[in-house]
Amino acid sequence: MKRKPTGITLAVSALIILAGGMAIAEGQASQSRWKINTETVVDTQTGLMWQRKAPRVTLFWEQTQRYCEGLKLAGFSDWRMPTAKEQKSLVQGCKTDKTCKPGKGPGENGCYWQPAIWSGGCTRYWNSDSTGDKGFGYALDFRDGSMKKYFKDGNVVGPYVRCVRGPVTK
Length: 170
Prior knowledge:
Blueprint: H1 7-32, E1 34-36, E2 40-43, E3 48-51, H2 61-70, H3 84-88, E4 124-130, E5 136-141, E6 146-151, E7 164-165
Antiparallel strand pairs: 1-2, 2-3, 3-7, 4-5, 5-6
């Protein structure tokens, strides 16, 4: 004899279906946020176009600024250094107001950025913000999601660079 589903069975089934649908929607939203091209990535949430592959060279802050301003990529020449706020928008899997466990992010090698998008090394990247301390600038360290101070032109090897443009319109 076939049993009719009870109210509890129906409610639990509805929750399972709803939760499954939300998980799919969240995954799709995450993937649809990024328009990935060979040389660039457009963040549809912020409207910013990012250099996809960062050069594997460390530069001092002013060199980074000149590099971005002189960059010609994907038919565009209006590239610049990102602000700290723009850069923080790339952090995934970690709240940007704290330091996270190094190497535990969702990206390749535990980097705190979206997987399968970026190349150029999971490390520190300069941004255009100054610290208020003369001679220092900020760089976001994607290894632990933290913002750190570095000498702009000191005698230590500086962070990398990933240039940005925009926001771009559709």
